[in-house]
Each structure stands twice: as C-alpha cells, then as structure tokens.
Amino acid sequence: MKKIQIQGTNKTYTIGKIVCVGKNYLEHAKELGDAVSEKPVIFMKPASSIIFSGEKIIYPEFTKSLHYETELVLLVGKTGKNISKSNALDYIDGYTVGLDMTLRDIQSGLKKNGHPWEISKCFDTSTVLAHFIPKGKITNANNLSIKLWVNEELRQNDNTSNMIYNVESIVEYLSGYFTLEKGDIIFTGTPAGVGEVKKGDKLKAEIEGLSTLVTEIS
Ligand code: MG
C-alpha cells in the first residue's frame, strides 16, 4: 500500500485507484488522429505503477515507443458517489503534476483491435507524481499553465483552461458511475505535444503554483 502526504500538512492518504481521463484536450486528440469523444474517455492504472518525483522511470523492454503525458492530478479527500459539479471541489484535497507514461506502440495496437489499454499504461514506474499541494493554495485549477521539458527543451506548453472537461465536470462524471474514495487519484488528461523519450532523457514537468516534477528514463 502506497501512502502520500499533502505538502506542509500532516494529512496522509493510502493511495486507492488511479482514474485517468483520456483525450481531454482537443489538440491532443487531434495529434493522435482520434475522433473527439462525446463523453470523457476513462481508464485506470494500478497504485503499483507509481513512483515519485526524483525517482527513475524504467524503460520496459517490451516497447519501442515510450511516451510522456503531462497532466494535472487531483487527490480525492473524501468518499462520495453521484457528486454534483457544484460540490465537486469539496471532495478534492490536493493537486499535483503527474506523468501518465504510455507505451504508444502497444496502445495503438490494442486500440486497433478494440482491446483494453492496460498493458500500455500500467507497467511499473508508468505513473509519476510530484508532491501534492493543498487545494486551498490554488484559486482556480481550471486555469493553470502546464509545461514539460525533455532535456531542457520545451515539449508541452498549454493551459488547463483548454481541458474539454474541467475538474468539476470530471468529478461529477466519474462519481456518477462509481464511488470515489479518499486516497483515489485522478489524472485529468494531457495537452498536445506528447512524444517519445529514450534512456538517459531527463524530464521536468511544471504546473503553475504546484510542486515541480523531475525524473529520468533508465
Ligand atoms: Mg493520459
């Protein structure tokens, strides 16, 4: 069981499920050549895939295309079901920046056959998290710049205001289908600019007002 703490507090959380929204930025859906869905695309990752800023991503030997996806990440602070947009933020305790590492070659093959994506998304070290910041430090999570550098070259540069489904809509949508529990983590989707990394690459991800994430591919 992995535990996390919100920076500057003594609140601890046992990590539950990691729920992810796919294709939540129009330009990213386009770059993948995918149609924009009428409803959010949802998938999950296991807690065993998590590492933290400063730790290394291990390049799996069963892929030739390891991609980064930089995302705003929410920490669920209390259990709820059928949460309305207007109450959604009551269920969120913290924010951070995360990487949803993806094996794009494997994912494309699975998609083509209509199969689930897990093999491309759940491998060890595929989920990277920076420190969580208390919710109260962020005035509006739906308007934050989001950036990723690979070896100091800027590769992703967008704003969470371009999310198709904002934080409140995501919480409402997910909790309409299953219970969100304290310690669950929600990845809100990546902007355009995703791309491949190779062994030795150094990644830095930042979201305005949040803790910086650094990692390396090994
Ligand atoms: Mg993603």
**Main sheet makeup:** 8 strands, mixed
Query: So how many helices?
Result: 4
Oligomer: single chain
The radius of gyration computed from the alpha-carbon positions, rounded to a whole number of angstroms, is 16 Å
State the share of residues found in helices, binned by percent: 10-25%
Question: Distance N terminus to C terminus?
Answer: 24 Å
Q: CATH class, please? A: Alpha Beta
Total beta-strand segments: 18
The number of domains: 1
Short description:
With 218 residues, the protein is mainly beta.
Topology:
Blueprint: E1 3-5, E2 12-14, E3 18-22, H1 26-31, E4 41-45, E5 50-52, E6 56-57, E7 66-68, E8 70-76, E9 92-100, E10 102-103, H2 104-112, H3 118-121, E11 127-129, E12 133-134, E13 145-150, E14 153-159, H4 167-175, E15 185-187, E16 195-197, E17 202-207, E18 213-217
Parallel strand pairs: 3-15, 5-11, 6-18
Antiparallel strand pairs: 1-2, 3-4, 7-10, 7-16, 8-9, 8-15, 9-11, 9-12, 13-14, 13-17, 17-18
The structure holds magnesium ion (MG).
Question: Please, could you describe this protein's structure?
Answer:
With 218 residues, the protein is mainly beta. It has a single domain (3-217), classed as Fumarylacetoacetase-like, C-terminal domain (Fumarylacetoacetate hydrolase, domain 2), CATH 3.90.850.10. Helices cover 13% and strands 35% of the residues. The chain has 4 helices and 18 strands. It has helices at 26-31, 104-112, 118-121, 167-175; strands at residues 3-5, 12-14, 18-22, 41-45, 50-52, 56-57, 66-68, 70-76, 92-100, 102-103, 127-129, 133-134, 145-150, 153-159, 185-187, 195-197, 202-207, 213-217. Strands 3, 4, 5, 8, 9, 11, 12 and 15 form an 8-stranded mixed sheet that branches. A 5-stranded mixed sheet has the order 6-18-17-13-14, with no helix packed on it. A 3-stranded antiparallel sheet has the order 10-7-16. The longest helix has 9 residues, at 104-112. It is globular and about 40 Å long. The two termini are 24 Å apart. The mean pLDDT is 96. Residues 20, 22, 69, 71, 100, 187, 189-190 line the site of magnesium ion.
